[in-house]
Amino acid sequence: MHTKSLSELSTSLHNGEISSVELTQHYLDRINAHNTELNAYITVSEDHALQQAQLADQRLQQKTAGKLTGIPLAHKDIFCTKGIRTSCASKMLDSFISPYDATVVEKINDAGMVTLGKTNMDEFAMGSSNETSFYGNVKNPWDNNKVPGGSSGGSAAAVAANLAPIATGTDTGGSIRQPASLCNLTGLKPTYGRISRYGMIAFASSLDQAGPMAKSAEDAALLLNEMAGFDQRDSTSVDREVPDYTASLNDSLNGLKIGLPKEYFGEGLDADVAKTVEEAIKSYESLGATIKEITLPNTHLAVPTYYVVAPAECSSNLSRMDGVRFGHRCDDPKDLLDLYQRSRGEGFGDEVKRRIMTGTYALSAGYYDAYYLKAQQCRRLISDDFQQAFNDVDVIMGPTAPTTAFNLGDKTDDPVSMYLADIYTISTNLAGLPGMSIPAGFVDSLPVGLQLIGNYFDESRLLNVAHQYQRQTDWHKQIPNAYK
Amino acid sequence: MSLDKADVEKIAHLARLAIDDNDIPEYARDLSNIFDLVEQMNAADTTDISPMAHPLDAVQRLRPDVVKESDQREQFQSIAPKTEAGVYLVPQVIE
Q: CATH: 3.10.310.10, 3.30.200.20, 3.30.930.10, 3.90.1300.10. Which one for A6-255+394-483?
């Protein structure tokens, strides 16, 4: 039951072969059996899930159910859920229960899906290995000594180990695509503004975007159909029609022009990962695509630029955690300053503090032009590179991450080396473009992801390009032995 | 770039973060490394390049200024660390 696609599950539910309560209980049992070793979930919302499943079964019986009604999913613990704790993997929000639902959660609830629980992540989504979580590491289901990637590492591990059929994630610099790559999933970061950010705890507001983490492009398209759309409550939400993302999955790729940025295949890329990714791209030729080398000459500026923009925005966003209205508060504050400083000092972990301080410094008096303004200018250069490239090609391809999953603890002492894990994903966030990672093979029994980058609002094309590859290959169907 | 103890203390104060004295050397080292990375931006010539604040060059939407939300004070304050008679309590700030 836990190896079926969303479409297969939907058919079984609509035919009455299984009930949503049975399906939900099956996943809850699997979570009970495996979550202790993987630590993929921070909170399992068993009672809430079974209530939602009962309501879904009623809708199915009354023939008022939609395509995804009754199908369980997991939410990254960054989405506010009314009545279920939303911790953002931080001590600061350890006891935070949101008074409202995020728009994404609300839309998915309206579709009749069942929330199994909230998944582990890097604290406030700051990290690339899920090791900054207050609730401990997540293990990669492919090898328990390896990281699952981050920041949406819990969502990735949960779906890869079949502890959820699908999950939500968020991506500020690669946080959907990099864990998808490391755990053999199909993950999509849509165009900035495509999915509402309302109720999604803000990290870097000009970069953050939610998306699906799935076992196939078809599953991702089905969930994106529910997640996408304009929202009055998010001032950067884009008011633009949402297509049916499944409608073009089967379009032919004949004549598709693929661009390979030479900067994505240079120094720093593991040779075996490079070979795997190159083979995957080559196979598109048999689907009618043509491949040409392109250049994104300002790629080297992406990581430096990101580590100004993201920390600057996070230092502002996280100022709301002040120990006054919600969240952690220190004991016996002697005055207001002490209340702020100790509540924040105790509530935030090291990486969050580093980023707040980086951003605070970059924005402090006298430094704005040298850092934030300069970064916004570099951002323009990076974005212009992509627009130049899209004059010649339809989609850009390359590796998602420079290596396969690395060992737990390998990069925790050196923040800068951790930052470089997102070297191929960060540019798309800075430009606001949609990006995707799909399974492309294995190196030493660990998954390798192929990254697809499209022009603005080209999610349908990316899903089509991914789906056509998945019709020819079975990499995305591989499941780690322990979780079959 | 090299940040020293005084720099870290100043930044932590601006950010309203209490940090342990023993941790300052590590923060100084890490932040210095991060700014070394960041300063690779300086290699780029950005003369006359307009800063990019939003990928889609969107403009701020306006809406009529009408009350839509209902009063949810009790619900919002139920998750606050300390409240009394409908207000949030903090240490005394006025003598």
A: 3.90.1300.10
CA distance B32 to chain A (A): 9
- Side-chain half-sphere of A216: how many Cα atoms within 13 Å? 21
Q: Which residues contact B22 (CB under 8 A, 6 or more apart)?
A: none
Record: fold of B5-43: Histone, subunit A (1.10.20)
What are the domain boundaries of chain B? 5-43
pTM over 0.95: yes
Q: Which residues of A touch B2 (CB under 8 A)?
A: none
- The amino acid present at A180, given as its one-letter code, is A
Chain region(s) in chain A for CATH 3.90.1300.10: 6-255+394-483
Q: Give contacts of A127 with chain B, Cβ < 8 Å.
A: none
Say yes or no for a CB contact (<8 Å) between A376 and B54: no
Are A300 and B40 inside 8 Å of each other by CB?
Answer: yes
- Contacts of residue A211, Cβ cutoff 8 Å, sequence gap at least 6: A168, A169, A170, A171, A176, A187, A188, A189, A190, A195, A220, A224, A227
Q: What is the pLDDT of residues A56-103, one digit of tens each?
A: 999 999 999 999 999 999 999 999 999 999 999 999 999 999 999 999
The neighbouring-strand residues paired with A186 are: A214
Work out how many CB contacts closer than 8 A connect A with B.
168
pLDDT digits (tens, 9 = 90+) for A381-432: 999 999 999 999 999 999 999 999 999 999 999 999 999 989 999 999 999 9
Distance from CA of A324 to the nearest CA of B (A): 7
In this predicted complex, what is the ipTM? 0.96
CB atoms within 10 A of CB A321: 26
